[in-house]
């Protein structure tokens, strides 16, 4: 288990609320991905409910995340096989949870529903959840894990108390990498640390997905431009013909991290170009979980956005 140094304030707020006369029923756990928000949600739920004697999993903690893509994949799950997940949290999952809430908790008088990531709920699923947040069953608490709170319905956000999870300092990530990935080669470790953007999850994913070549190509496009499309072709090959959702998300997060660093190092037209590209990557990151992108075209789009930043810097460099 990771000892997250950025959870201290969230724990203080949670425990203060537990000791109060009337604890709020809905909580929004907000912050970048890779900051341990889901781990906090599970630990906070167990602390609220108490131990489940003789059970590893507490029967009154209900977690909702991406389900099987379709009936075929659902059958694979039932057989204990690997299965492809849907790109969003669907209304059927929310309705199934609501049906459970019509019964009493298995142990005690409380239960917790964890939804992760809540910002990837379909619109109908969000509307269905809103009804439960407006009229919560007695003893039911909701923990909504979100990486992009702005994608949630304003009416959902307004009914939740927010716990914010700050990013980690480079020194903190370095220490956690020593614990979580001690066998990483020094060059890869340093590249992962540089690409982390305050997120341990980003750093670990960088190592697991072997994003060193992609990171190098992104930096080269930013520095040199790509007038002959050669670097974009190399980037497309490095990304691969059929990247899965985890790899695609990691690549977009990497681009965001690289651009985020550059914003504070420039000014004028070049800085505005970086900001514009950053906004486009935010849009792509928001669409990636639900849109069926063509991998080749998306790879070229990533390279083109970076090349535009390089083009904007040419007059200043000249």
From TrEMBL:
EC class: transferase
Residue ranges with Basic and acidic residues bias: 52-61, 68-82
Region described as Disordered: 52-82
Domain of life: Bacteria
The UniProt record lists the keyword Nucleotidyltransferase: yes
Enzyme Commission number(s) from the entry: 2.7.7.7
Any single Pfam family the record assigns to this protein: DNA_pol3_delta2
GO biological process terms held by the UniProt record: DNA-templated DNA replication
Entry GO MF terms: DNA-directed DNA polymerase activity
A Gene Ontology cellular-component term: DNA polymerase III complex
Keyword check for Zinc-finger: no
Assigned keywords, A-Z: Nucleotidyltransferase, Transferase
Name of this protein: DNA polymerase III delta prime subunit
Gene3D superfamilies assigned: P-loop containing nucleotide triphosphate hydrolases
């Amino acid at each position: 288990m990771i000892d997250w140094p950025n959870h201290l304030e969230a724990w203080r707020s949670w425990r203060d609320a537990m000791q109060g006369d009337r604890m709020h029923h809905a909580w929004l756990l907000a912050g970048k991905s890779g900051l341990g928000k889901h781990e906090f949600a599970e630990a906070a739920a167990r602390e609220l409910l108490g131990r489940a004697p003789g059970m590893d999993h507490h029967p009154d903690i209900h977690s909702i995340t991406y389900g099987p893509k379709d009936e075929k994949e659902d059958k694979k799950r039932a057989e204990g096989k690997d299965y492809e997940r849907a790109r969003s949290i669907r209304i059927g999952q929310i309705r199934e949870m609501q049906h459970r809430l019509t019964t009493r908790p298995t142990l005690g008088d409380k239960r917790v529903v964890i939804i992760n990531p809540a910002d990837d709920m379909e619109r109908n699923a969000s509307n269905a959840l809103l009804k439960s947040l407006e009229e919560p069953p007695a003893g039911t608490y909701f923990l909504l894990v979100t990486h992009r709170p702005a994608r949630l319905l304003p009416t959902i956000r307004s009914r939740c108390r927010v716990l914010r999870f700050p990013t980690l300092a480079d020194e903190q990530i370095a220490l956690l990498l020593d614990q979580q990935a001690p066998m990483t080669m020094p060059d890869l470790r340093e590249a992962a640390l540089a690409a982390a953007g305050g997120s341990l999850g980003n750093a670990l994913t960088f190592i697991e997905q072997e994003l060193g070549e992609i990171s190098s190509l992104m930096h080269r496009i930013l520095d040199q431009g790509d007038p002959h499309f050669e670097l974009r072709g190399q980037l497309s090959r490095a990304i691969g013909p059929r990247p899965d959702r985890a790899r695609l998300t990691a690549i977009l997060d990497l681009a965001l991290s690289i651009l985020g660093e550059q914003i504070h190092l420039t000014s004028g037209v070049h800085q505005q170009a970086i900001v514009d590209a950053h906004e486009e990557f935010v849009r792509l990151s928001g669409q990636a979980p639900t849109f069926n992108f063509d991998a080749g075209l998306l790879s070229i789009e990533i390279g083109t956005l970076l090349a535009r930043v390089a083009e904007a810097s040419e007059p200043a460099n000249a």
